[in-house]
Design brief:
The protein is mainly alpha-helical. The chain has 8 helices and 3 strands. Bound molecules: manganese (III) ion.
Length: 215
Amino acid sequence: MAQSPAPQTAQVYPHQLPPLPYAYDALEPYIDKMTMEIHYTKHHGGYVNNLNKALENYADLQKLTVTELLAKIHQVPEAIRTAVRNHGGGHLNHSLFWKLMKKGGGGEPKGELAEAIGKAFHSFGDFREKFTACALGRFGSGWAWLMLKNGQLVIDSTANQDSPVMEGAQPILGLDVWEHAYYLKYQNRRNEYIESWWHVVNWDQVAENYQEARK
Ligand code: MN3
């Protein structure tokens, strides 16, 4: 079943690059300006362009949001299924990702989300450790996720640009562990990138995603 789309993904064809909610250098020194600029304009921009190209001749699919396309990926015609999976997934994942970070972020979640994380993973420290291990353990390119799956908070990773919505789950928090997300500043040191990333997590947005997913 398709999820109720979050505002940033409510649009249909032609899909558009959503505005970046901060300047390219806003997340310095944790995420560097050049990485942000290339990641947003070239990588995310490329996914949007290629998704639109794939959908060019498919009027019915043009009426669907990217979330709906991915939730129904097995019904997408084989000729464009891989393109929609890769570029649609890339578009959705990055649209979520930018909002999950902010200048002056980090710290710990509050309220219901904090309680739910404590319940599911024992403590915030244990959650952080498990999420970090998941992100480090993803071989090659992919994402680490906190997701709501069958009503449960679950930590798992996906390969490439696969989205949790392809398996009926709702992403709450996601971390891009493709090398393009960190190589310029951290080279092969994915562990340092992940440690830095915790300093910019936008827990207000994570809490909003959690409330949205529970509806
Ligand atoms: Mn990326």
